[in-house]
Design a protein that fits this description.
With 76 residues, the protein is an alpha+beta fold. Helix content is 36%, strand content 11%.
């Protein structure tokens, strides 16, 4: 919500990634995010999928959990 409503929001693109489309939609609804927030669904166990998304961005905020299980591939 903070980034989506940031005063300089027009100067950057915001996206969210989840392991499933349904969870991504649920989180966007809960946070009241509009369609300007890009959506990505990624299986973090598949390097090619993860790499494809990460190559499109400048900053990754990793909030995946449990971190020890799902976060390590993102950091790599």
């Amino acid at each position: 919500q903070y980034l989506a409503s940031h005063p300089e929001r027009s100067s950057f693109t915001l996206g969210m990634t989840a392991r499933s489309q349904s969870k991504l939609v649920d989180v966007k609804k809960k946070l009241r995010l509009d369609d300007s927030v890009r959506e990505f669904v990624v299986d973090v166990t598949k390097f090619e999928e993860l790499d494809h998304v990460v190559q499109q961005v400048k900053v990754v905020v990793n909030a995946v959990g449990p971190f020890w299980r799902w976060g390590t591939p993102v950091v790599r």
